[in-house]
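R.M. (postdoc): so does anyone remember the format we settled on? I'll just put the structure tokens first.
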């Protein structure tokens, strides 16, 4: 089975656009940024055509999720799981694998590997997603556990 990887052009960050500034200001003032909002926006951005207005309009979700990997790792993990509950297509899972999940395991693998292993035992789609993670800077001991959990050893 081939997996389509939809690459997001991070260089086209619309943060400088008035649309981004207006959204960011409004959400910050109301303090309404919910996990489900981020998850839905992240999915919509990845399903939109590359370089489209729709992709630009949802880029805030990419940035919001990326910020959480440093600011609130537990929430970052929860939103990764919310995204895959919303849409577990190969396209979305491949983007989660080679993006947020890889970042999580590279930066906080020791805190989350037990959860990943447990989830991979009961959820075939998560197991597939775990198998699409790239090693990158994931520590060797964590990487070996990922390979076993994803049945790649």
């Amino acid at each position: 089975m081939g997996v389509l990887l939809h690459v997001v052009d991070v260089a086209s960050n619309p943060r400088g656009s008035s649309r981004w500034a207006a959204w960011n200001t409004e959400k910050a003032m109301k303090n309404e940024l919910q996990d489900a909002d981020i998850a839905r926006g992240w999915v919509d951005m990845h399903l939109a055509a590359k370089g489209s207005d729709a992709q630009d309009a949802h880029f805030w979700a990419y940035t919001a999720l990326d910020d959480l990997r440093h600011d609130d790792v537990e929430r970052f993990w929860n939103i990764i799981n919310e995204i895959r509950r919303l849409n577990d297509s190969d396209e979305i899972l491949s983007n989660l694998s080679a993006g947020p999940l890889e970042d999580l395991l590279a930066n906080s693998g020791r805190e989350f590997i037990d959860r990943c292993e447990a989830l991979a035992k009961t959820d075939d789609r998560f197991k597939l997603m775990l198998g699409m993670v790239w090693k990158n800077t994931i520590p060797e001991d964590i990487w070996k556990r990922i390979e076993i959990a994803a049945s790649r050893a």
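R.M.: ...and that's the designed sequence above, right after the tokens. Also worth knowing: The chain has two domains: 15-87, 89-153. The helical segments are 18-30, 35-47, 53-57, 59-71, 73-86, 90-122, 124-131, 140-149.
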